[in-house]
Structures are given as structure tokens and as C-alpha cells.
Amino acid sequence: MSTRKVVALAAAAPALATALAIALAGGVSAQSPNLGKPISQEDLASWDISIGPDGAGLPPGSGSVAQGADLFAAKCQACHGEKGAGQPNDRLVGGQGTLAGDRAAVKTVGSYWPYATTLFDYIRRAMPLNRSKTLTNDEVYAAVAYLLNLNGVVADDAVMNAQTLPKVMMPNRDGFVTFTRGK
User: Fold this and answer.
1) Same-domain status, 104 and 24
2) 126: CATH
3) Are both 84 and 130 inside the same structural domain?
4) Which residue segment(s) compose the domain that 12 sits in?
5) Closest by alpha carbon to 143, among 111, 121, 172?
6) Separation CA 20–CA 24 (nearest Å)
């Protein structure tokens, strides 16, 4: 062993021995090494916002296609292009019929997403990209209504809310296989 390694081990040995002695003696408290504090229910609530396919947990609020068009122009169009056509970021509209076959798949809200409720969840949690979690529930419902309308999924006069959104049948609803562990 080189002299440098021996010196390094000798220098580290007292600190390691002390840490081991404290740990073996039960001297490390639940507060050590003071890496944080328990999360409060209030703090947790802002992150506990998952919405599954069945829509359980959708918040109060509503939004129409027309409201969504205005919102999209103001807060989404710069990244997703006019009417969700894409550029500089993801295309959100079109692509129906491209998932099967030899053509390149175009994964959009209308061609790929199996549930409108998970679209709500994603937009509420992650958009706008530079200011995630800043949209109100009404704005998220409006954005979802508008995107569903652009993809031909809901009518021009559609209003999305906690009752109507889970009833939306997405074009690719049956395009996924349910995974069950161990069966």
C-alpha cells in the first residue's frame, strides 16, 4: 500500500471510529442528521393531486371550448403552435390512424391518450412548462375542452367538469393493454 493511502486511512480512522461508536451506542437520534422536517398535510395537499382514469379526485370547476381557445392562445400557443399544430414543442392535434401500420406514429391527444381525465392530470401538474401548477382548475378544464374539441372528440359547445370529463370516450381508449402483475 502506498504511503499516500496509509496517511489517508490514518486521517479518516478516528472519524469513522467515532461515528461507529455513536451508532452502536444508540446515540443517533431521530432528528440526526437534521435533514428536514415532517411534511404537513397542507404541504402534502398541493402535491397529492393525481387523477386516474376513472376521474376520482377531479376538483370542482368547469371550462368550455371557447374559454379554452382564449386560454390556449394566451398560455399554450407559444410552445404548441396555433391550434396545437406543434412547434416548437409537441404537436397536440391530429394523428388519428397513425398508431398502427407502416406510417410513423403521431402521438397526440386525439390519437394516443386513452383517457381525458389523465390529460387533465397532466396539464394541471405540468403546464405551462415554465410555470407548472399555476393554472386554476377552471383553466385546466377549459384547456382540456379545447384540446378535445380540436381533436374532434367533443362538440364546439362542450363544457368539461368533474361529471362530464370522465364520460369522454377517447379514440384510443382500447389501444392499451392492462398490465396485471403475476397473472
Assistant:
1) no
2) 1.10.760.10
3) yes
4) 1-29
5) 121
6) 6
Q: Do 22 and 82 share a domain, yes or no?
A: no
Residues 88 and 148 in one domain: yes
Average pLDDT estimate for 122-144 = 96
1-49 pLDDT per residue, tens: 666 665 565 666 677 666 666 666 665 555 566 777 888 888 887 778 8
Question: For residue 149, which of 110, 108, 103, 176 has the smallest C-alpha distance?
Answer: 110
Q: Under a CB-based contact definition with an 8 Å cutoff, are residues 160 and 115 in contact?
A: no
Query: With contact defined as beta carbons under 8 Å apart, do 64 and 156 qualify?
Result: no
Centre a 10 Å sphere on the Cβ of residue 114 and count the other Cβ atoms it contains: 16
Grid cell 370547476 in the structure block, residue: 61
pTM for the model stands at 0.75
Between the ranges 19-23, 58-62, 87-91, 104-108, where is the mean pLDDT highest? 58-62
For the chain, the domain total comes to 2
